[in-house]
Amino acid sequence: MLCFFFSCQKNEISKTTIKQDLLIDLTKLNNEVIQFEKLVNNNSSQKEILEQFKKARLAYKKVEWAIEYFIPETARFMNGPALDEMELEENKSFEPHGFQVIEEIIYPAYQIENKENLIRELHIFQSNIKQITTSFEVITISDDYVLDAIQQNVFRVISLGITGFDSPILQSSVLEAGESLIVIPQSLEKINSKNKSLSEIKKLVQKAQTYCIENNNFNTFNRALFITEYLNPISKKIKAFQKEENIKNVKKSSPLKPTIETLFDKDAFDVNGFVLSDDYNFTPDKSLLGEKLFYDKSLSKNNDRSCATCHHPEKAFTDGLKTNVSLTGSNLARNTPTLTYASLQNAQFWDMRQLDLEKQSVDVIQNKDEMHGSMENIHAKILLDKDYIKLFKKAFPKIAKTEAWQIQNAIASYVRSLNSFDSRFDNYMRGEKNILNDEEIEGMNLFMGKAKCATCHFTPIFNGTVPPSYSKTEHEVIGTPNEASGKKISPDLGRYLYNKMPQLVGAFKTPTVRNVAVTAPYMHNGVFKTLEEVVSFYNKGGGQGLGYEVENQTLPFDKLNLTVTEEQALVAFMKTLTDKKYQ
Question: Where's the Cytochrome c domain (predicted)?
């Protein structure tokens, strides 16, 4: 009986909670960083230091799901890009910290003169671990938040983990992706070890990890297979587990709908996750009104231009021109971007000067070079139009009086209706295996791997809105030339025109690559006529690769070393991102 008692007691002690496991894993991470520091202090070999760095990153991947979800502001300084973090409202910037900064210090060659900086980074990292540990010790982690966090982690692996986004130099992403999945069955087992979906999740995770170990070459890793055969099924099983356990969805404002099974569901994204007020939420009636306004030339001063003058629906709402023409006949400075998927970002215009579509529409309408209209005059005209009054009453039934802001909201609502997610790529990710050929699949793997496209154009929206929270839209400095065959960089200062920070000279929003086959020409100045030219530009390392002086270039300036066949495959893949209506 005594032995039985101790046996039971031992089993009870071994049962830890999800939070306790998390704290244990944080301690393990801290120990790996301490060992890392010891090796640096002892002037160990480059090989030893590099191997310990890899161990520390693998340890981080086991806690990343929780840190990124619950404490994202600290996560940014543990595994964020090695670029300055900027607070544009105050024109302030903060130097980066964390693994990607450390990676640049130790790889490809660690120099002893960088020892002090490396030790400093490791101390900052340990300080962040301590801060995170303190936070997790006092918060409650309920089952619904655990489910939401690990589901988001699957989405993070898809969109960031296997693309090299957080390991741009060392490219250790494949093994780390497998490691980051381990926490899924471990956490779900704590909720209910007898759940019928759990055994299937365990098998899928084990197979996924084995696949990563056996196929750990970054450039040849088959991301198309990995997502469709492992990550999407795991994502579906997590949602099945949630339903079986009757665990509610977390209530939060998010562009990702809580009901989705995979990141590639047709209705995965909620455009209301990007509006600044509930009053602006999308409705079909607002969209119908907005469509009428979109094609109405009376919105311009001379009644000769509508929104559709520069955004042609048959060209995915672009105009096919390098740059359009102003009201006075001169060329505008920038290329007309597509409005498809424009609602799934946190900033508008190439220079990101407006936060939402409402402000974007009024900016264009009132711009003296584009439409030169007046919101007051437009409002007055609409109040005299019986058809418009009926549409406004239907679109805004709770508001007695038609107001000017509703015009902006209606046009923005129409733009929010332009996201189809029905390309051949989408259908492939939903199980139609034969819809893409071998070249297109190779192109997808290149896009998300060797070519590094997906480190800026994030899957599956393929713009610069960073998953899986989608709370920030990024800009890039790529050194775009002024002419396709020219030797000078574009003189357009981009975001710097509105935020006088040196990092923003020549910075432009990362646009979506969806529908790119029908939205030529390309770049902010329309400098490239074909996708082949665009791919060639990136393959050469952007502006710096071409020999331009672009000190603040955020695009890696080393050559991608893509073969002609690989360049062609990339173009073939991008053409699979065309919505059905434009095919």
Answer: 285-419, 438-578
CB count within 10 Å of CB 159 equals: 22
Yes or no: say if 189 and 177 are a contact pair by the CB < 8 Å rule: no
- In the structure, what pLDDT confidence band is assigned to residue 5 with cuts at 50, 70 and 90? very low
Which amino acid is located at 153 in the chain? N
Domain 272-415, what architecture?
Orthogonal Bundle (1.10)
- CA-nearest of 213, 206, 214 to 230 is 206
Q: Domain 424-582, what architecture?
A: Orthogonal Bundle (1.10)
Alpha helix stretches (DSSP H) within 192-268: 196-214, 223-226, 232-244
With b meaning 16 or more CB within 10 Å and e meaning fewer, what string describes 271-302? Answer: bbbbbeeeebebbebbbbbbbebbebebbbbe
Give the pTM.
0.94
- Is residue 409 a contact partner of residue 289, using CB atoms and an 8 Å limit? no
- What is the average per-residue pLDDT within 563-577? 98
CB 305 within 8 A of CB 371: yes
User: If you compute the radius of gyration of the chain from its CA atoms, what whole number of angstroms results?
Assistant: 26
CA–CA gap between residue 414 and residue 552 (Å, rounded): 37
